[in-house]
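dumping this here so i dont lose it
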């Protein structure tokens, strides 16, 4: 058990080479207590720097060729991968290794001082304390670098990105609606975006239209968590929106040849795209991250969407629903930053607007919690006349908050029969 964390970490990297990037800034080869494991880690690093793929055989022959002083057998390396390592725990393994290394170094560095105290060999207490302080300062400087607080490296990256025009429109994920993209530039990775409106204003349709645009036009994956509708209902909406066929007609299956051709076109478009739909009503926010990690390892994600915020619950009992929503919005914000992807949460509005002459929603209309307003980087309100008995309804998209840009209003047409928003 003494070297289990080291073996688990090495196993995780050998079996899945990309895992190395998760721990390369936490530990290095010198942090391994068992020298053999340090040699293996260094060999993995060197091989990956040369873009070599690693498995047990290639790793064994690389070590045999480049580390002749170390007798590391094929049996030893093969034994490492037989450990039941959990890939998601690789950062934990790295921290265990680092902590053990630091404790070992603390013991080595300060054993001499404890010996002097124990044997009463201190002549000048003030000089002794000064030596201990200097040793401690030196130890901390060497092993605890405050890189998290330094901005020089990041400043250099940001500056060169500006000079090289990397902060152009390519930085943003385009929604597919030209007027909206012109106003907000698009959705920015790492942002929490809230789309809010009264019932039947088209929140879900707008969000799904954005997801389909991102997946089909931008060739990025979309993850849509549907807590209200089944997967089948979501797919029917996608087919209607892309084919341009009335959703009732699709459900009724009374399609002519031209419409069947359009439906087949929509079917192929969706099939080629990468749209993930989760319709589990018992949405567990604490398993949210682990589920996302599995998708992120194999796909380039453009958007994560949740329909809708008020249907998300935590297992733990909170003293109020407001506090629960506050924690939910905070978790969603951390997910957007951690995965560097826009997270879109749909939200209901309270009935405050019913009491006003001007029914257009404002920030205080967000239901259940003011923390949604606080955590969100971008808030888009939908407003239209629900009493209009028309298939196509003019809808205002009101940018109520934009942390990194302008607010304003743009207008789209909402085709209710096809659950599709259209640029005016």
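and the seq i came up w/
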């Amino acid at each position: 058990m003494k070297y289990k964390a080291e073996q688990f970490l090495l196993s995780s990297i050998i079996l899945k080479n990309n895992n190395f990037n998760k721990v390369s800034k936490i530990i290095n080869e010198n942090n391994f207590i068992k020298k053999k494991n340090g040699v293996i880690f260094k060999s993995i690093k060197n091989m990956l720097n040369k873009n070599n793929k690693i498995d047990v055989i290639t790793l064994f022959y690389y070590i045999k060729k480049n580390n002749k002083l170390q007798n590391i057998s094929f049996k030893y390396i093969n034994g490492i991968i037989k450990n039941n390592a959990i890939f998601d725990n690789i950062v934990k393994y790295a921290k265990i290794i680092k902590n053990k290394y630091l404790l070992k170094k603390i013991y080595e560095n300060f054993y001499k001082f404890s010996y002097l105290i124990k044997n009463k060999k201190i002549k000048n207490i003030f000089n002794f304390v000064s030596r201990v302080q200097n040793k401690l300062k030196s130890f901390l400087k060497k092993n605890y670098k405050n890189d998290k607080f330094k901005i020089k490296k990041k400043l250099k990256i940001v500056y060169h990105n500006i000079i090289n025009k990397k902060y152009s429109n390519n930085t943003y994920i385009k929604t597919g609606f030209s007027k909206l993209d012109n106003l907000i530039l698009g959705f920015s990775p790492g942002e929490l975006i809230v789309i809010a409106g009264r019932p039947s204003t088209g929140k879900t349709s707008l969000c799904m239209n954005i997801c389909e645009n991102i997946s089909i036009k931008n060739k990025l994956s979309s993850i849509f968590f549907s807590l209200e509708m089944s997967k089948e209902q979501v797919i029917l909406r996608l087919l209607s929106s892309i084919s341009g066929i009335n959703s009732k007609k699709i459900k009724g299956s009374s399609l002519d040849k031209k419409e069947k051709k359009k439906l087949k076109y929509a079917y192929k478009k969706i099939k080629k795209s990468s749209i993930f739909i989760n319709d589990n009503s018992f949405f567990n926010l604490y398993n949210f991250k682990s589920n996302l990690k599995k998708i992120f390892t194999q796909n380039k994600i453009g958007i994560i969407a949740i329909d809708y915020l008020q249907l998300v619950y935590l297992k733990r009992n909170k003293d109020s629903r407001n506090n629960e929503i506050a924690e939910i919005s905070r978790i969603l914000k951390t997910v957007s930053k951690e995965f560097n992807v826009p997270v879109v949460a749909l939200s209901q509005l309270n009935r405050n607007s019913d009491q006003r002459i001007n029914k257009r929603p404002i920030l205080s209309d967000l239901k259940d919690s003011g923390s949604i307003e606080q955590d969100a980087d971008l808030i888009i309100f939908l407003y239209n006349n629900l009493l209009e008995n028309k298939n196509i309804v003019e809808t205002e998209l009101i940018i109520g908050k934009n942390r990194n840009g302008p607010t304003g209003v743009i207008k789209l047409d909402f085709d209710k029969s096809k659950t599709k928003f259209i640029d005016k």
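The radius of gyration is 28 Å.
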